[in-house]
Amino acid sequence: MKSCAIFSLFPCFRLTYHVKLGTGPGYLSFFFFTTCLGERLYTSGSNNNRPFPDYSPKKPAIRDAELVYQISIAIKLRRYEPLRRVLKPYESKFRPDHLIWVLMNIRSDYRLVLDFFDWACLRRDPNLESRCIVIQIAAASKDLKTAHELTRNFWEKPNLDISLSYAHFVELLIYTYKDWGSDPYVFDVFFQVLAEAGMLNEARKLFDKMLNYGLVLSVDSCNLYLTCLSNNYDRLGMALKAFSEFLEVGVCWNAASYNIMIHCICRLGKIKEAHLLLLQMELRGFIPDVVSYSTIINGYAHLGELQKVLKLIEEMQVKGLKPNSFTYSSIILLLCETGKIVEAKKVLREMRNRGILPDNVIYTTLIGGCCKLGNIAAAHKLFKEMQGLELVPDLITYTAIISGFCQTGKMVEARKLFHEMLSKGLKPDVVTYTALIDGYCKASEMKEAFSLHNHMVQMGLTPNVVTYTALADGLCKLGEVNTANELLHEMCQKGLQLNICTYNSIVNGLCKSGNITQAMKLMEDMKVAGFPPDTFTYTTLMDAYSKSGEMVKAHELLREMLDKGLQPTVVTFNVLMNGFCMSGMLEDGERLLKWMLEKGIMPNATTYNCLLKQHCIRNNMCVTTAIYKGMCAQGIVPDSNTYNILIKGHSKARNMKEAWFLHREMVGKGFTLTDASYNALIKGFLKRKKFLEARQLFEEMRREGLLAEREIYNFFVDVNFEEGNMEITLELCDEAIEQFLVGKANNRNS
């Protein structure tokens, strides 16, 4: 209340707030000032201002005066004729000095001034004095666009000496000001051109020089200058400094000015300080708009602070501000990065319902988020939806979904999209090629992987460490350790350095191929090479021992890891959990889960899935349900695997009500059933005599292109035959023959 009283009594009272800006542009002190409540004059009222000089060009000789008079009369009387025809008799005698003298005679006719100047420019580039005069006349005629163009054209000349030209231009613009225009916006125009051309130091010099003449440049021009400064990270400190200094000398900042500074402070990573400026902006009488809020929301979104983002959106809505595309984009990015894809898709729907068309960046963010969670079906659906809206996927979009297909082993789909991308003229980069190569390596299709590697090199792209690591990993999985070593030697010859990820990948490959002894030896070699094994190395080896049933050795590695001060991750515990479950040691697995919760180590869906799967196999659905409820109570979001495990378990136990509910829930979240889950559901409904539900699922399964079991095909062939649906009966018979007989033949040939 005290500060409010002070503001009411002293509108120009200055409030300082110190913000330490970090080491980017240096340690600077930035002062936020209250702005004046009344309008400031364009010119300052100081009596010490320097006056503009009088214009006094050299006088024409008698002969020149006669020629100037003749030209002036001719173009005035014959103004509607082309000037080149009117001035043809005078061309041979016309000199640059004549241009200024003629302009003196026709200055009151703005259109004639421009036409005559254009004619002169076609013959010879006019001197700078003439150009400044025409700029002054244009500004005085309120034709700021032409004034801006004439000024910009001068600074676009090649091989211009910036320092010398700036001094000369300023001198002549000041010299011609008083007699040729006296419109202060002419200096705004020059200031804007300098800012747009990136001549920001010269722009600041002009601003300071105009203060000596009692002129303060307009807030719009100053906003442009701040924007140009804030777009360059190294000049952010200059922007902050200018914001405070310009206010002191009379620039009356507006809402757009505050938005620029909020953006500037956010770029420095000072989101809380930017938020403070938003609050101060409102206290000073400037109403924050959707841009103000969206900038802060984007800043908090990049910090992952969801609650603050939601609070700001609520605050926006209370003030009647509608989120724009940028706002929604920030929210969707945050939700995707935190794995909340379902919520992110809801935001997308809300956005479209409000009539705001999402761009390809928003769809690419969502596609990437779905792929990270392994929900490639949802990602592909979004990809198709994006194309349906005539949004053109770019390289990043294609790379995201290709990578998603590769991660889930769907290489046919990944390759198809790769060729589609090429057909649209998009050139894949190293990331795209590496994603495909890694996918083929994981699928043990090394011939395809090396073919892509060679094609990549032919395209002039240089494989990176990740590319070679993927190839080495694939070779190791096939037991071709010597070939992998040769590849890594080639990598070193090309100047690429092995890193911990490369070693870990080879360790992983050796473990996958069953060479655990060799993997343990490589771990010792890592220490010698200066790359001590990390958590990933130990987790990979523990996983290998757990899968081979050697839980004692897995425990020994865990103890060694802890002794070295390495912190296990949730993946480490998942490896142990999987080992316990595969070995039938469910009680140990449940004790491990309890211990994790007691120690504050948050399990994920994979942790629970191991236990759920084993209890479902044992047909112990009561315990399964209890574990699932405990999982949800901990805030763990079920993934696609969770739903498929539960649906198969409940279907096998003939708990069809629960299985059907889970099926609808997972579809609602964008997950898809596996063929095994469909088969289990359909057989469960058939056993319960729920033929309508079974048929509905069978048709759904066929639409998804998934393979039903033989007995299911036999059942629906008989049903349709009995119903007299001969066309569908024959269609199912053909489908079954193709899938079972042709499929078997292909398997034998492969």
What's the structural blueprint in terms of helices and strands?
Elements lengths: L1 H8 L52 H16 L5 H4 L9 H11 L3 H14 L4 H13 L3 H12 L6 H19 L4 H12 L3 H13 L6 H12 L5 H13 L6 H13 L3 H13 L6 H14 L2 H13 L6 H13 L3 H13 L6 H13 L3 H13 L6 H13 L3 H13 L6 H13 L3 H13 L6 H13 L3 H13 L6 H13 L3 H13 L6 H13 L3 H13 L6 H13 L3 H13 L6 H13 L3 H13 L6 H13 L3 H13 L6 H13 L3 H13 L6 H13 L3 H24 L1
Describe the structure.
InterPro entries: PPR_rpt, TPR-like_helical_dom_sf. Keywords: Repeat. Belongs to the PPR family. P subfamily. This is Pentatricopeptide repeat-containing protein. This protein has 750 residues and is mainly α. Among the domains are: 113 residues, no CATH class; 160 residues, Serine Threonine Protein Phosphatase 5, Tetratricopeptide repeat; 96 residues, Alpha Horseshoe (Serine Threonine Protein Phosphatase 5, Tetratricopeptide repeat). Helices cover 70% and strands 0% of the residues. The protein is built from 40 helices and no strands. The longest helix is centred in the last third of the chain and has 24 residues. The chain starts with a helix and ends with a helix. The N terminus and C terminus are likely disordered.
Q: What is the β-strand count?
A: 0
Beta strand %: under 5%
Largest sheet: none
Spans of 5+ residues with little confidence (pLDDT < 50)? Answer: 1-45, 742-750
How much helical structure, as a percent, in the residues? 55-70%
Mean pLDDT: 85
Protein name: Pentatricopeptide repeat-containing protein
Pfam families: PPR, PPR_1, PPR_2
Organism: Xanthoceras sorbifolium
Family: Belongs to the PPR family. P subfamily.
